[in-house]
What does this fold into?
Amino acid sequence: MIIIRKFQPQDFQWVIDIERKVFNEHDPYLYMQFYETYPETFIVAEINGFVVGYVAGFLAKEGVGRVFSLAVHPSYQNRNVGGSLLKEIIEIFRSMGVVEIILEVRSGNVKARRFYARHRFSQIGIKEKYYNDAENACLMKLEIK
Ligand SMILES: CC(C)(COP(=O)(O)OP(=O)(O)OC[C@H]1O[C@@H](n2cnc3c(N)ncnc32)[C@H](O)[C@@H]1OP(=O)(O)O)[C@@H](O)C(=O)NCCC(=O)NCCS
It folds into this structure.
């Protein structure tokens, strides 16, 4: 059973371990800052007492939510953990008056692009050489009511 709940400071090491396994590109300190600044939109998924995924988002401006990072431990992917996290943050954003959610994803990350498309995000642009290694980002958007 998946438990979706708010991030707590004791989850920090789990989150960093997942981040290192799937991205290895963010400064760990960013996640503590995230918790301090945007505690309402930093969510984790727990299975059998293990934190297996997280999503960190924030209110970019009034009405606009942004997903900064979403990741699921490789051993727990394809079990709807990512889908559950995304649905939760969409509902939280909705309750904050958000009408559109935007995010960037690496253009070569076919799995994540398909995942977001299945959750009705559309590609609205490309940010050239957005990442440190010069890969392009696809800018994706979901409109919500
Ligand atoms: C992208 C990512 C977050 C998706 O997480 P996930 O937990 O694997 O997502 P889900 O399980 O909800 O969905 C993944 C697939 O599993 C399938 N699936 C979900 N539950 C399933 C089930 N019970 N039985 C069979 N298939 C299932 C879904 O159909 C989905 O198919 P898709 O490839 O068409 O999207 C994850 O792959 C990840 O962490 N990737 C690395 C980091 C990353 O790229 N993050 C996004 C960029 S910010």
Summary: The longest strand covers residues 50-61. The first helix runs from residue 12 to 22.
